[in-house]
Amino acid sequence: MKKGLIHIYCGDGKGKTTAATGLAVRAAGSGMKVLFSRFLKNEDSGELKILDAVEGITVLHMDKSFGFFNTLSEAEKVEAQETYARLWDTVCEKAVSGEYDMLVVDEFMAAYHYGLIDHTKSLAFLEKKPKELEVVLTGRNPDEKLIGLADYVSEIRKIKHPFDREIRARRGIEY
């Protein structure tokens, strides 16, 4: 590959993380080195166990999970912002090192939307990323600037979901 492109998996449907995870596995299976990071997700997720075992994929794990942003106290929101700002700095540093062919940032849109990562720094990174680096971003409601930078934008639309009937997330299916 001579040029790395930017992918966005967005929408209100189930499958954004699944698509990004599948692409990471496909890339690793083809000999690419993948850096996989996540925002606002629990560290006790089924895909992390598999990704950790796949040669060629490096997962950046968090010491603490924060969960849904809108459920956090004000103090937790401040702590989350500090934590995720550091994570984003680490992601950017590693992504430009030349060690990786692909970067996956799961729930990038939520981190961006809630101001957990700096908009100016995020846009600058995407605009000036290493030309060979493939970047995969997931989450709901990407803003127009992000859509403009992307080469692929795939929307996953919910038609029906068990949560609508108050069926909680199930291990191995939703997490």
Mean model confidence by pLDDT: 94
**H-E order:** EHEHEHEHHEHE
Q: Strand count, sense and closure of the main sheet?
A: 6 strands, parallel
Shape: globular
Topology:
Blueprint: E1 6-10, H1 16-29, E2 34-38, H2 46-53, E3 57-59, H3 74-95, E4 102-106, H4 108-113, H5 119-128, E5 134-138, H6 144-149, E6 152-155
Parallel strand pairs: 1-5, 1-6, 2-3, 2-4, 4-5
Walkthrough of the structure:
The protein is built from 6 helices and 6 strands, in the order E-H-E-H-E-H-E-H-H-E-H-E. It is of the alpha/beta class and 175 residues long. 30% of the residues are buried. The mean pLDDT is 94.
What would the keywords be for this entry?
single chain; 175 residues; six-stranded parallel beta sheet; 6 strands; 38% helix
Question: What would you say about this model in short?
Answer:
With 175 residues, the protein is of the alpha/beta class.
